[in-house]
Structures are given as structure tokens and as C-alpha cells.
């Protein structure tokens, strides 16, 4: 399981209703998109990785203002019944 969050900070203007936000895309090895968001100033995300390998996380700013993105990611695994503690 891959999860995380991000926030984009615009240094030139404050976020307003007419600001388009940024786009976020997570791409699996082989090029398939596993998660995407459009027009946001930040959000949480989570997805089950379909395969092991290098994943690409892209942020796209459709306007020319400078943005700073704070990005947190956690890569773990989904426990199965053998990984869970059981009462004896």
C-alpha cells in the first residue's frame, strides 16, 4: 500500500477560487497511471501498488506562478492473516 499527502504553496498570490491548482499523477512501472488528481492545492492519496518497481510521482502547475510542494509518502504492505497477531 502506498499512501501520503501533499500541499502546494503559492508564493505570489494566495489561493483563490479562480486559481486552477496543481495536478498530481502517480505512475506505475510500465507507464500505467494508478492515481491522479487535477486542480488541487493539496490532498491525501492512497493506492495499492499493482507491481513492484520504481513509481513516478509528478506535480504539474498549469500557470506560471512559482509553487512550493511539500510531499509526504509512506510505502508499506497490506497485512495478510499470517502477519496479524492472534490471541492465543
TrEMBL record:
From the Swiss-Prot or TrEMBL record, state where the protein is found.
Endomembrane system; Membrane
Q: Which Pfam families match?
A: EMP24_GP25L
- The highest taxon in the source lineage is Eukaryota
> Which keywords does this Swiss-Prot/TrEMBL entry list?
Membrane, Signal, Transmembrane, Transmembrane helix
Checking SUPFAM superfamilies in the record gives: Supernatant protein factor (SPF), C-terminal domain
Q: How does it sit in the membrane?
A: Single-pass membrane protein; Single-pass type I membrane protein
Q: Which residues form the GOLD domain?
A: 1-75
Xref: InterPro entries: Emp24-like, GOLD_dom, GOLD_dom_sf
The entry's cellular-component GO terms read: endomembrane system; membrane
Presence of keyword Glycoprotein: no
| Family under the similarity heading | Belongs to the EMP24/GP25L family.
Name this protein carries in UniProt: GOLD domain-containing protein
Gene source species: Malus baccata (Siberian crab apple)
Give the classification, highest ranks. Answer: Eukaryota, Viridiplantae, Streptophyta, Embryophyta, Tracheophyta
